[in-house]
Amino acid sequence: MQDDLFGDAAPQPPAKSLANAAPRVPSASSAGQNAAKVRPAPTVQAWCELARQLPAQLRFGVSTWSYPGWEGLVWDGVYDASTLSKNGLDAYHRHPLLRTVCVDRTFWRPLTASQYAAYAGQVDDDFRFVVKCPASITDAQIRSAEGKGREPNPGFLEPSLAIEHFVQPTLQGLGAKLGVLVFQLSPLPWSLLSRPMLVLDRLDRMLVAVRQALHAHASVIVAVEVRDPELLGKALVDTLKAHGATFCLGLHAKMPPIEEQLPMLRALWPGPLVCRWNLNRIFGAYGYADAQKKHDPFNAILSEDPHTRAVLARTIRGITGAGQPAYVTISNDAEGCAPLSIQKLAQAVVA
């Protein structure tokens, strides 16, 4: 059954479909005071029928929405990045295929509850946010501006910091619109990677506190993403399972390809899917700058990855077909244009 569930055989049909639902295009009155500043592209209406065919449990989204190059795909015209960053979320969430977004900026600096509330005010009640925990909590090292580790981070996986600077502000600001909390562990120094149980013990203590803080918010998914393949295995599975957390598929060259990460989800079954497709493997583990240079202005698929798309589509069908939720966010660095990647992936899911 588990092999079938993750795409090794014929997929199960979705447990629930949007086939009979009205298109999810919110009215301007639900969008807040900035609705007139950024408008959705008229072409998004063409994707309503495809959206109806997707499993109700599935939410697609991007990792950042402030790209002027999405003119005609998401936006109705040319807007600068600053305007889109402040006011583009309202237009973004009107796209029928975009039912979530990954807030990546929180990785670099914690946000306040009021900042989260401003995001929540731009979207309708069906929308959900995926939010990354600040690196000040999930990075074992304090890094230089160039990203090199300078010294150990005393706040690494510290429970009180995770609650105060991440869990509580997201809950207060986003409320019922909070979907997933992602704890992405940055690449570990050898001093810790050679002692994985020390890391997992810290993770265990933090997840205890996170679960206590979420006791009244059972629908919020807690996902842990790692950047070191050496951590994949039973010990990590046991730690996640003990606290009802899931493993986040991180699709980029620093980690094994998707099919080699799926055993983690099988070991945690039944459970949700949280996937972040961040970088095409052709650019290597640290090729984000090369991907940005090739893909700018991010309005076309220039680095197509049909293999990852096909495996991910089968995985989505299996997991949502068993009634579990699925959150899949995609970066422009995956194929060149996140909205077009989502359209192709959606078509593969319903094919």
TrEMBL record:
It comes from the Bacteria. Residues 1-37 are annotated as: Disordered. It holds the Pfam family DUF72. This is DUF72 domain-containing protein.
